[in-house]
Structure formats: structure tokens, C-alpha cells
């Protein structure tokens, strides 16, 4: 059974930092593209950042230069370092594992990030 478990969310002031983690089990982690998505009320879930098995990265324009995604295949974990946080970064962050060749998607349950003074 595949599980993705996010952690690291919380309340932070504007300009602050948080580090999200997502531990994966039950899948061949190293071959999956791992991503972080964000959802806010009334909006569709949107891609924030992704990292392929070859460690190529992709970021939403709104977070470029502030967020960094990384992965540790030995620990089956993906991270997202979030710096210079803004109010608009508030939302539930979901971890995603995607295997293109088999069109497989797995999702975590999400972790809430609230940026507020």
C-alpha cells in the first residue's frame, strides 16, 4: 500500500521560512516524479514545485527564487524549503508521486501552511 505522509506545516509570519517533508512508502520512490501542490479555498489544486527522478526541477513562477524542492532517495523523502513566505503562500500543501509511464498518481493527505502576522 502506497503512503505519502506530509509534515512541517504550520503558522509562520510573512518573510519567514518553513520546510515541508513528505515520506513515501510502498513505491519505487527513486523513479517517481515528486511534487508539491497547493490548494486554497475556491481554487483548484496547483503545482508549486516538482522534481524528477533525475533531479530536474520545475517551479511555479510565483515561488521561483523562494522555494527549493529536493529529494533523498535513500530516505524516500521529498522536501520543500520555503523562504520569504507571503500571505498568498497560505494553503494546504499536498505531496504527489507521479509515474508518467504508467499514468499513476498518488497523493498525501496534505499539511496546512498559514502565513499570517
Describe this structure in words.
With 117 residues, the chain is an all-beta fold. It is built from no helices and eleven strands. The protein has strands at residues 3-7, 10-12, 18-25, 33-39, 46-51, 57-59, 67-72, 77-82, 91-99, 104-107, 111-115. The strands form two sheets. Strands 2, 4, 5, 6, 9, 10 and 11 form a seven-stranded mixed β-sheet that branches. It has a four-stranded antiparallel β-sheet with strand order 1-3-8-7, with no helix packed on it. Strand 7 (67-72) and strand 8 form a beta hairpin. The radius of gyration is 13 Å and the shape is globular. The chain starts with a strand and ends with a strand. The mean pLDDT is 97.
The total beta strand count reads 11
Stretches where pLDDT is under 50 for at least 5 consecutive residues are none
Which secondary-structure class do the elements indicate? mainly beta
The whole-angstrom Rg is 13 Å
H/E element sequence: EEEEEEEEEEE
Main sheet characteristics: 7 strands, mixed
| Tally of contiguous helical segments | 0
The percentage helix is under 10%
Round the mean pLDDT to the nearest integer and report it. 97
Which outline best applies? globular
Q: What percentage of amino acids are in beta strands?
A: over 45%
End-to-end C-alpha gap: 40 Å
